[in-house]
Amino acid sequence: MNRFLDLDDLSDSALDAVLARARRLEHSPVTDDLRGRTVGLLFLNPSVRTLASMQAGVTQLGGQTFVVHSGAGSWKLETRDGVVMDGEAAEHVREAIPVLAQYCDLLAVRCFAEGRDLATDLSDRLIATMADLCPKPFVSLESSLAHPCQALGDYKTLDDLDIPRRGGRFVLSWAWHPKALAFAVPASTLAMAARRGMEVTVLRPDGFDLPDPVMARARATAARSGGSITVTSDRRVAMEGAHVLYAKSWAAPGHYGRPQDEASLRAPLKGMWCVDEPWFASARPDARFMHCLPVRRNVKVTDAVLDGPRSVVVRQAGNRLHAQKALLVQMLGREVVR
Ligand code: CP
To answer: Which domains does the chain show, CATH number per domain?
Structure first.
């Protein structure tokens, strides 16, 4: 596998092998699998977990990293094609990607959605273009429509918690946030839970359906894996017998790129869509709370839930490390499972 832009870039056998290796690496974290190898990390957007876990993981595998943050101690990079570069950006990714690729054995890039045009962001074209520009193995650290490293870590977290793959009840819930956020995490989370064969419910207020292509893909995946996808705005119905509530905010597709229009739809939902303990009333008693982080306390989820026994958000972040290490060994190590 030469590029990892989506969880589906891993075949079922490769995914099983990566998850098995991630479990081994969790217990024996230091190896020499990447001795003499360099991983380049290019961030066009901020990060805590992805940055730190990639750097720590490569070091634990005996390799080295370099990090470039676009516009923060380095040239600001332009991503758009055909523009007159007379603004802030001094260098284009068309040069930067192949240049950086010469300095490393694998390049990993974070490049969020622009948030202006829905069709453009749903195409996820930019990360694919950057992968095409890279003659070395390439990993997405989150694009406009996918966060595959998060999905891989979350897959492991669900396994660790013995949440059933087939028949496990997984609720992906919209949560209130002051800004319109991208679809990358909800799209990857939905696809991941569908691929596990879970009974997935998308809980969202009116106007906040996930975009049609995201839902169509998840439904096709669920059909293959024996899972199901339903959509509701009824919290009690959604949470009935749930094993997991995974909270995330996302933009209203009908107002995409027009935050002021969306604000009138979003404003009345504040407080009503902050996850709190009563949300779990009809769930399994041991139902878990998941979130990719960062999360705004008492905006998206209360202190009581985050600090209580349901929350596995720190464990999720820990699994980013183990899962990404296993992925890097799969892509750069000596043994490759196809
Ligand atoms: N979940 C996640 O990707 O966190 P960061 O944005 O901090 O990397």
So the answer is: 3-147+320-332 (3.40.50.1370), 162-311 (3.40.50.1370)
